[in-house]
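Listing S7. Sequence submitted for prediction.
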Amino acid sequence: MPKDMFDHRDILNHVYFDKRKLYLLGLYNTLTKHNKEEDPLFSKISIAAFKGDLRKPILVLDAPFALKGCPNGFSIRLIPCVSDITFKAVQLRANKNNVRPQGKKGEDESSLPATPHYNLSILEDMAISTQHKILLKTVGENAELKKALLLFKTWQSQRGFRFAADGFDGHNAALLLAYLHLTHRLPGGANVSAVAAFQTMLTFIAEGNLQCDLDFRSSALGAKRVQPNYHGSTGALTNSKALASNGGAAILEDSSITIDSLEHSSILFSATIWDYKRPLVLTHPLANTSDTVDKDNVEIKVRYNTLWRVSASSVSMLTSEAQRSLFLLQTQSPTCFENLFMQRRSFFERHDHFYHFKVHAHTLPYLSNCNIHV
């Protein structure tokens, strides 16, 4: 969106989100006007919520034709964003308040509670240009990393992890792969194969590293690469029964893999005890935002956490599936490829039971008098 659309005060009290909606409405009206029935640009133009956030609608454009490999057609998502110099990023730090009560304009900001999710949702739009540069420099320049990302997204989709509102989605996966590449964790560096890169991603997640503070530092923006200093609370489960109770690799579809065989797996000792109160962190600097100095001459560094929407519980499930999948790879089972990429293995359907009852509309008044126990 054009920078001159906004004033520096638009970060206050949802004004930015209101202007964003107006801009999207203008796009919707323009595209609808030019989408003629006799020669349509798109078969359908609709509005959806970005990652379930109703403050941030996006446009979904369904193509009127199919491509090779996409027999059911495809969709284009238009996501409005702003440059990373539109607002002062220092005013959008997690400890700042940007939603002020009406009638209390003169109240000291420090006395108001912080609005971290509100601030991060604006920073999310500002960070897109930086993330584009990161991905273009890493995944975009390496065909094998592109293939590895497709493998990982397929693996995610088959387990129902990719599209959850609080889940580790495909964009997070691309940034994680870029992080592993820029911090020299991929075997072979730029010459890594797609399978090796995919396995490295699984290993990194299975070992619980997503619970550590991860930081691109300046490596993604062309400066000297610095090896991150991991710190975080991880623990080891010491027996296979504990791993099974944690939803780990014990629940396997391949009948040749048993709980006893897990005793000899190196994955067993990498299982993580999750701290669900601890936020997930994968930060990077904003490319064009210079650090500022506060009134005490203390340097303020503004960094964006790409995992702020991801819940610890969703990554805990992802970790369990990564442990199970790594074990399948270690066993070199003949059905390994099918289990990893071809069959749908929903985490929830494996661990929960779902019951569907057909209820007709005319019976609803009578159900209020029934006591149903499961």
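Caption to Listing S7: primary sequence and predicted structure tokens for the chain studied. The first strand starts at residue 44 and ends at 50. The beta strands are 44-50, 53-62, 75-78, 213-215, 281-285, 292-293, 299-300, 303-305.
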